[in-house]
Each structure stands twice: as structure tokens, then as C-alpha cells.
Amino acid sequence: MKIAKFGGSSVADVAQIKKVLSIFNADDERRVIVVSAPGRRYPDDTKLTDLLIELYHLVIGHADTQQITDKINTVLERFQSIEQDLPLKQSLIPHFKGKLEHLIKETTEHARLLDALKSCGEDFNAELIAAYNTQQGIDTLYYHPRDAGLFVTDEPGNARVLEESYTAIKDSLPPTKKIVIPGFFGISKTGHIVTFSRGGSDLTGAVIARALDAGIYENYTDVSGIFSANPNIIPNPNRIEEVTYDEMRELSYAGFNVFHDEAIAPLYSKEIPVVIKNTNRPEDPGTLIVSSRQAEGVVGVSCDKGFASINIKKYMMNREIGFTRKLLSILEDLNISYEHIPSGIDNVSIILREHQLHGKEALLTEQIRTTLNIDQLSTEKNLAILMIVGEGMKTAVGTANKATQAFMDHQINLKMINQGSSEISMMFGIEEKDAVKAVKAVYNAYF
Ligand SMILES: Nc1ncnc2c1ncn2[C@@H]1O[C@H](COP(=O)(O)OP(=O)(O)O)[C@@H](O)[C@H]1O
Ligand SMILES: N[C@@H](CC(=O)OP(=O)(O)O)C(=O)O
């Protein structure tokens, strides 16, 4: 059995949706598809999810009724134009309109309203696509995550999948029918709609693939696979034929947004392979994500912005038993997650995503100063992290040298270097302003 997920670019308009359905219907093995909300049709277009977020801000900002109505209409017009062009005989627009108005009227808590509105993009799209396929004579069911058994934690905007979902989904979905499921959200045990982080429809597809023990998880997008660097920075980059789960997790974590980094977790323990394919060129082989491969050198160079570093210095830190534990418990108490902890004998840096500091920075630094009696503390922001990734790095000699030489040749100030014990990636901390230059320089050094 194959589970396929189609991203926003694959369902942005009628022409794209028809390509999706021809892929869906071409193979009986392809039983469940997960769809995103309509994405951008042209570069300056707004993703439907972003229109829904704008609607939320108007509602909570007590904008006048006309502005809210206009935004609801803008959302509905995207679906209406899809319906008209298909054409769908029985309009779903009155139903969608009622649902949006009901949510706005009845949802009092802001975080809940945001999640509920954000979910409507994928939800309406799935319902519409299933209805059209049925109209075309292929009996197709639409399954809301509530009915599919996709249960998640209750953290608005950042849901985690609950383990019990896997059996619930297996038990809920009829084994012989074609099914369309909206991506990006699940249902908490208190019955609330909770969304994943942005790009999270990839995760929905992965969860369904694992629950149904799929032979393959196909992830359809607008590029013919994963490239060794972001194609928006490097023109015509090298296409990766095969990449491991571990390599992909590192690459998507640091900016390869073509596949959500959390989507690897449900798949790797069951060794369900993933193929990244192009909806516009389904005949292209794409990129296969697998558990192991014959690896040589570096497979990809990724870079992501928006990091901060808290640099701490204390003489004799290396002799102080329990220092790091106390430091980490401060982060834990403030519910802050970190990314890397490069350290020296008398200093340690905590690298985290800048958004983790929002509203907590003063408290965090104050607690570190007072609890740990340190000598110096400084915070650096606007950092980028560049990663070179490859299972082959374990055995290759001189890999780091190529990157550091590239930084030197291009006058890029290197703020820190870190290599995890798995030796499949190396992280370089640089200033955000150097990010594009650095990717070009390092990519050219390896490819
Ligand atoms: N290394 C990479 N390989 C392929 N695509 C990448 C890479 N890094 C970034 N991208 C971008 O990811 C995009 C696909 O992801 P996304 O926009 O989320 O698609 P979808 O709407 O299908 O989910 C590509 O169009 C490309 O611009
Ligand atoms: N629509 C959501 C979820 C998603 O996965 O979208 P896409 O498949 O277009 O990346 C978002 O924009 O974040």
C-alpha cells in the first residue's frame, strides 16, 4: 500500500488538483492521500493558511465586521474558484462559510481559535477533493482527523502525535476505500483541533503511513526530489538520489523545508521508505529516503536563520560537578528547548531558536547568573546555522577542512563549530547576514 501526501503547491488550483487526482487514481495501491491547503499559485500569491492567520488577527484585533467579512470572502473565493473550474456540481461553499462563522462565534480562547481557523485550509480542501473524485465515479471518502483517530497533545500550534493514534487510525479507516485526509492537524484528548508546526502536513502523511504499515510514503511537491542545497540559493543544484533518515532529519532541521524534520520520526522505526516526488513530473525518479545507504562524503549543505546563542563563562567550570545539569534544569523550568551546546573547559554556549527566548530572555539570563554564580554571560542574536551532512563523513578525512577553507576564502566569520557523536553532520555558527554567501561557498567546495 502507498500513502501519498500532496503539498500546498500541488493543490493550489484546479490544474494542480487534477494532476493530483490522476496520480491518486492511477494506482489502486495508492489508497490514502493527505492534502495540504491551497498554496501559492504564483510567487506573490498568499498561501491559504496565511489568509486564515490574517483572518484570526482581524477577529482578535476586533476589526470592523466588514473587514472580517471581506477576509472570509477572500478565503471562500479560493475554494469557489476551484469548485467552479472543476466543476463541482453541488457547492460546498455555504457549508464552509457556516463552519468559519461558527468557529469565530463560538471559540473564545485565542490560541484555540487560531488553530481551528488554520486547520480549515486543509480540511475544506480534503472535503472538496474527495467530493469531486466521487462525482467522477471513484467512490472516495473524506476523513476528518477526529474520525480517523489522529490524536495529538494539547499544545496549540505545536502538536505532538500520541502513540495510541497508530492503532486508532488502523481501526478507523476502511481497508478497501479511497480516502482523502486533511494534513496539518489532529485532535487532542479534550476534543480540540490542534495544528502541527508550519509545513506539518508532511507529518500527517507519515503518521498515516506508519499506522497503515505502508510499503512506501510518497511525498509530492513542486520539485523533482531533494537537492544538495536549497534551489532558491543554488541554481540547478545536484539532485540527491538516496538519503538516510538520519541525514534527512539533520538537513530538514536546518532549512531543507521540502520535508518537515518531525516527519521522519514515525517512519524510521518501521523502516517505511519515503520518496519525494514532483506532482508536475511524476515520471521523474525523485529522492528516496531510506534507513541505510552506501555513503560517500557530504550529501547536502543546509542553512537556517533565527538562532541565538547564550554564552556563559566561569573559571574552573570543568571541575564543578553538576554545572550543566543545573543549567539545563533552568531551561527545563522555563520550558525552553535548545539545539546545541558547544563547550570548552571554562565556557559553554546554549544555541537555541530565537523564538524560544520571547518573553523569557530576562528571566533566563537572570536565573543563570544567580543560580550558577558565573563570571560572564552574553547573548548573541541573528545567528544562522550552516550544516554539512553525510553518513560518509564518518570515514572521510579532511571533510571539515574544505568547509573552513571556504569560509576563510569568502571572509566569513565563523562563530562556532560543533560535531555530534554520530559524526554525520557538522554545524557552523555564522552571522545571518553571511548565510547566502556561506551556502554558495560551502556548496561549491563539495559539489
Ligand atoms: N534542498 C532542497 N531540495 C529541494 N527543495 C528545497 C530544498 N530546500 C528548500 N526547498 C524548497 O522546498 C520547496 C518545496 O517545499 P514546500 O514549499 O513546503 O512544498 P509543498 O507546498 O509541496 O509542501 C521547493 O519548491 C524548494 O523551493
Ligand atoms: N498549510 C500548512 C501545512 C503544510 O504542510 O503546508 P505545505 O504542504 O504547503 O508545506 C502550512 O502552510 O504550513
UniProtKB/TrEMBL annotation:
Pfam families linked to this entry: AA_kinase, ACT_9
Catalytic activity: L-aspartate + ATP = 4-phospho-L-aspartate + ADP
Protein name as it appears in the record: Aspartokinase
InterPro entries: AceGlu_kinase-like_sf, ACT-like_dom_sf, ACT_Aspartokinase, ACT_dom, Asp/Glu/Uridylate_kinase, Asp_kin_monofn, Asp_kinase, AsparK_Bifunc_asparK/hSer_DH
Similarity remark: Belongs to the aspartokinase family.
EC number: 2.7.2.4
Pathway named in the protein's UniProt entry: Amino-acid biosynthesis; L-threonine biosynthesis; L-threonine from L-aspartate: step 1/5; Amino-acid biosynthesis; L-lysine biosynthesis via DAP pathway; (S)-tetrahydrodipicolinate from L-aspartate: step 1/4; Amino-acid biosynthesis; L-methionine biosynthesis via de novo pathway; L-homoserine from L-aspartate: step 1/3
Keywords, sorted A to Z: Amino-acid biosynthesis, ATP-binding, Diaminopimelate biosynthesis, Kinase, Lysine biosynthesis, Nucleotide-binding, Transferase
